[in-house]
């Protein structure tokens, strides 16, 4: 936006044009002149910049009001943006503004307002290319840019700032947008060409970006989709199909891709964000390019990427060519391209976090405009307020603790000519379990210390004799018969005679838990010692009534249960997978 040509005065920071509306509690972009423009400035007739959010007509409508205010001013009337306080009866009249002793009403913004506007907007670009989220600048205008899709029960109904959350980032190969006719499959309805599952930890200490290969063989489940007329259509599933067919084909929407992830990994996805080729081009242009590095010169005739060895800055068409190139890296396959894309995303994150971006309001305005236009999300997060909340939560995660990795796979043994891959059953389940259990792929020293301190506090204190421990044992995900075997072990081997089998738990749990009432803390410590339960497995809550009518604790055996008599407090093993972090610079090879 051009403050000079709008009669706003010299040396005006665009960020200062955001004004707190006392009626709504939100910031609004004030573009109407605060004073009458001179004939000279009006003659320039400048066209509002794109940052004005399509308010040209509104500016024209404001002109008569401005003239009216000028006339009122000449007659001695006083107008301000904030209503003046009513004078109490009998109180001395306030001197007019400008006179000695008088006070001009001043609308003060909180000191952190400008800073908040700056860095929340900058994180929007991460979402569209794989690692990030959203922000807001133009409020209703930006919200109008965002396209939403009703995915029904495929995801969460709302966004929680207090829990871990997972967003499926989908990049399609649909050839929409100017200049994209030559890319992708000409007949594509928009496949899931690039897919990343972004898991953000509950405590925001870390995040994992898990790439899902488009050529991974999976089972695509039946998928209910909402049509434009409001009716529902069930798209039949398909067995042993490429993952990228979970979107577009047969009318499958992003909810079908989310259901496919759940079907094949066991990981529940909360939301999705989807973008096409234009996202990479417009966003990289908005931040004046992204720094990339290649070990050797690249001259790819298919993608038209030409780069010298070493570091370069790419944007627009060149940035899109970089993330699409396959033939110039590794074994010319999609798995090697995924590694290059992850390096690109890490560089983009560093660019978004740099002071050159976060302290440049005009750059952030362009970025927010480009991002919202390229973004499609589920209805649960399809408003600016929620997107802003996601941005704020993502901002808490240090880049050094954002890990990029790929679903462990191996060549499809059913193929003579290798073109697709299947899950590596010896490695993939552990990766999926780490995400489901909110385990970081990076070392988070601060968080580990906090967890150990919290566990020590729970386990510290008196322990009741085993004979006084009353507990009901439930099976919440362990192998069949585990509750009964555990009961026998507790009664015979450990002397916990006041224990009983409670059957199956209402829902499966990833980890074993022990819920107890405040007056049962000493019993909980004793059972934790016997079972090898960590402090984090102890859940203060309520007791239940056992078969003798006495209060008892509830031990729920989760999927991590290792068998009767086997301690549960062994350290969690980290998956042996190749990974990188967002803070490291790495050259594509």
Q: Helix share of residues? A: 25-40%
For the sheet with most strands, the description reads:
8 strands, mixed
Structural class, by secondary structure, is alpha/beta
Give the total of beta strands: 26
What are the salient characteristics of this protein?
single chain, 589 residues, alpha/beta, eight-stranded mixed β-sheet, six-stranded mixed β-sheet, 26 strands, 29% helix
Describe what you observe in this structure.
By secondary structure, the protein is α/β, with parallel strands linked by helices. The chain contains 16 helices and 26 strands. Helix 7 crosses helix 8 and helix 7 (277-286) packs antiparallel against helix 11 (361-374). It is elongated and about 75 Å long. Mean pLDDT is 76; it is low at 1-15 and 32-137.
């Amino acid at each position: 936006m051009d403050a000079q040509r709008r009669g706003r005065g010299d040396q005006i920071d665009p960020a200062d044009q955001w004004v707190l509306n006392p009626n709504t509690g939100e910031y609004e972009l004030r573009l109407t002149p605060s004073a009458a423009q001179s004939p000279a400035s009006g003659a320039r007739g400048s066209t509002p910049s794109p940052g004005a959010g399509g308010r040209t007509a509104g500016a024209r409508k404001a002109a008569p009001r401005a003239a009216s205010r000028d006339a009122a001013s000449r007659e001695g009337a006083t107008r301000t943006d904030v209503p003046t306080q009513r004078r109490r009866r009998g109180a001395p009249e306030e001197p007019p503004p400008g006179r000695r002793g008088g006070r001009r009403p001043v609308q003060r913004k909180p000191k952190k307002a400008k800073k908040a506007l700056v860095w929340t907007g900058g994180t929007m670009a991460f979402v569209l290319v794989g690692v990030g989220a959203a922000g807001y600048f133009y409020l209703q205008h930006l919200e109008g840019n965002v396209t939403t899709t009703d995915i029904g029960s495929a995801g969460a109904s709302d966004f929680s700032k207090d829990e871990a959350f997972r967003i499926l980032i989908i990049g399609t190969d649909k050839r929409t947008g100017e200049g994209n006719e030559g890319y992708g499959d000409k007949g594509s309805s928009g496949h899931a060409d690039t897919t990343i599952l972004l898991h953000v930890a509950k405590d925001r200490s870390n995040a994992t970006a898990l790439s899902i290969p488009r050529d991974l063989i999976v089972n695509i489940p039946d998928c209910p989709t909402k049509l434009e007329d409001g009716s529902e259509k069930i798209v039949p599933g398909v067995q042993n199909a490429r993952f990228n067919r979970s979107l577009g084909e047969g009318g499958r929407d992003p909810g079908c891709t989310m259901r496919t992830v759940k079907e094949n990994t066991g990981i529940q996805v909360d939301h999705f964000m989807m973008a096409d080729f234009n996202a990479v081009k417009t966003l990289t242009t908005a931040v004046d390019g992204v720094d990339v590095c290649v070990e050797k010169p690249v001259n790819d005739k298919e993608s038209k990427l030409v780069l010298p060895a070493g570091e370069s800055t790419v944007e627009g068409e060149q940035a899109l060519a970089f993330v699409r190139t396959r033939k110039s890296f590794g074994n010319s396959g999609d798995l090697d391209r995924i590694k290059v894309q992850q390096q690109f995303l890490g560089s983009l994150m560093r660019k978004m976090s740099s002071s050159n971006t976060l302290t440049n309001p005009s750059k952030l305005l362009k970025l927010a405009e480009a991002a919202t236009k390229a973004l499609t999300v589920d209805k649960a997060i399809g408003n600016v307020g929620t997107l802003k909340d996601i941005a704020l939560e993502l901002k808490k995660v240090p880049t050094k603790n954002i890990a990029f990795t790929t679903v462990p796979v191996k060549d499809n043994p059913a193929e003579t000519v290798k073109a697709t891959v299947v899950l590596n059953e010896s490695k993939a389940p552990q990766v999926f379990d780490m995400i489901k259990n909110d385990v970081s792929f990076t070392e988070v020293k601060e968080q580990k210390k906090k967890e150990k301190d919290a566990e020590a506090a729970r386990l510290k204190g008196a322990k009741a004799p085993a004979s006084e421990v009353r507990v009901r044992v439930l099976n919440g995900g362990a192998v069949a018969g585990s509750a009964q075997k555990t009961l026998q072990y507790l009664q015979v081997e450990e002397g916990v005679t006041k224990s009983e089998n409670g059957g199956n738990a209402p829902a499966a749990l990833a980890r074993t838990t022990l819920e107890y009432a405040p007056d049962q803390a000493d019993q909980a410590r004793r059972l934790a010692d016997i079972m090898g339960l960590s402090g984090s497995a102890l859940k203060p809550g309520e007791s239940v009534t056992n078969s003798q009518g006495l209060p008892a604790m509830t031990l729920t055996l989760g999927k991590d249960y290792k068998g009767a008599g086997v301690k549960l407090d062994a350290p969690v093993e980290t998956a042996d997978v190749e990974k990188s972090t967002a803070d490291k610079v790495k050259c594509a090879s």
